[in-house]
Design a protein that fits this description.
Strands 1-4-5-2-3 form a five-stranded antiparallel β-sheet. The chain has one domain. The protein is α+β, with helices and mostly antiparallel strands. The protein starts with a helix and ends with a strand. The protein is about 25% helix and about 50% strand.
Length: about 100
Amino acid sequence: MKKLFIFLAIAVFMSSCIFTKVKAPNPFFVNNEAKTLKVGTSNAAAYVGIVALGDASIEKAAKEAGITKIHHVDYQVMAVLMGIYAKYTVYVYGE
């Protein structure tokens, strides 16, 4: 019975950490006069919190979409198994 209780406690604790996906607005406005006609994205991934690959910079996202006037920037983070794998995405809006 004690082993079952420990197993259930661990399962409940881990269930909230198996998958997380958050997309949030960034309150950082670069140019309020720019129109949001284009959207550029850039990505980076992290493995086990140690190895990071990619470029999730604002500059790369803007360059990819040909944006010269940035209106605002959003970001999204997705994590699996408490950070064993995580993906970071930056969204740049502008013209």
